[in-house]
Amino acid sequence: MIDPGYFITFEGGEGAGKSTQIRLLAETLRAAGHEVVVTREPGGTPLAEAIRGLLLNAGDPPDAMTQALLFAAARHDHVTRVIRPAMRAGQIVLCDRFTDSTRAYQGEAVAEDALEATILLGTAGLVPDLTLLLDLSPEAGLGRARQRGAAGDAFERADATYHTRVRERFLALARREPDRILVVEADRPPEVVAASIRALVEAHSAIDLAGAGA
Ligand code: TYD
Fold first, then answer.
1. DSSP for 69-84?
2. Domains (ranges, CATH) in the chain?
3. How far apart are the C-alpha atoms of 200 and 133, rounded to whole Å?
4. Which residues pair with 10 in a beta bridge?
5. Residues with CB under 6 A from ligand 1
6. What pLDDT is attached to residue 214?
7. Which of 10, 18, 94, 105 to mutate to test the pocket of ligand 1 (most atoms within 8 A of CB)?
8. The Cα angle at residue 212 between residues 211 and 214, in degrees rounded to 5
9. Residue nearest to atom 17 of ligand 1 (CA)
10. Nearest-CA residue for atom 19 of ligand 1
11. Which parts of the chain sit beneath pLDDT 50?
12. Distance in angstroms (rounded) separating the CA atoms of residues 180 and 174
């Protein structure tokens, strides 16, 4: 059965402004009468948030395959308890990071077949209807992330060339799946980025943003 809801994921490097843009799109969608669930990965359930704490605060981070398995376990809990039920109820789910983050970050060190296997298990086959890739140079993104005052989690502390490769992997994913993954130039004022996102959602989904409601 096809779920009546709609699943949009936001992807991109550190400091690309995902959480601001998710909040703004959620406001637009709610004003148009839609029910919206905002969530994030790793996280979204108590168990998945606990796994997030293990992963992001690890003093001695586990290898990439162990990370991928933990992300998959967190994701499976999140998908089964939050995302699928919301979609079955006809809601719009906006998720800060999802499977493309696994491909972009863990894809450096885990072979593609093995990584896709963890992704398939973690999602139980759920694929986003639409993915908005907020693209920004790592220099600009890390600068923004530091302005937030964050000391940086285990992933943010990685070196700049690593973040450049992460960006390249995200862009390669967008080239591979151009119908699902739309690239948004994030190095612009937030309200300009938000207007681009509204236009893309309007053009690429059946979601009505006009205000009459679902
Ligand atoms: P978060 O604070 O959410 O990052 P940001 O604020 O930049 O969105 O931290 C999540 C970190 O986890 C981020 O550095 C990317 C990483 N991550 C992976 O490596 N693989 C994954 O599958 C996911 C979902 C996140």
1. HHHHHHHHHHIIIIIH
2. 6-204 (3.40.50.300)
3. 12
4. 96, 132
5. 14, 18, 41-42, 56, 71, 96-97, 101-102, 105-106, 153, 155-156
6. 43
7. 105
8. 100
9. 101
10. 105
11. 213-214
12. 8
Number of residues written out for the chain: 214
Residue 173 CA to ligand 1 centre (angstroms): 17
Q: Half-sphere exposure of residue 209, counting CA atoms within 13 Å on the CB side?
A: 15
pLDDT in tens, 71-93: 999 999 999 999 999 999 999 99
Q: CA Rg, the chain, in Å?
A: 17
Contacts of 128 (CB under 8 A, 6+ apart): 7, 8, 9, 95, 98, 99, 180
Residue 155 has φ and ψ, to the nearest 5°, of -80, -40
Sheet with 36-40, edge to edge strand ranges: 36-40, 92-96, 6-12, 130-135, 181-185
Which tokens hold the place of 67?
């990370």
CA distance 109 to 111: 7
The residues facing 40 across adjacent strands are 96
- Tokens representing 150 are 């964050």
Name the strand (E) or helix (H) holding 25: helix 18-31
- Ligand 1, atom 21, residue with closest C-alpha: 102
pLDDT tens track for 18-55:
999 999 999 999 999 999 999 999 999 999 999 999 99
Q: Find all residues with CB under 8 Å of 60, minimum gap 6, and list them.
A: none
Q: Identity (one letter) of the amino acid at 199? A: A
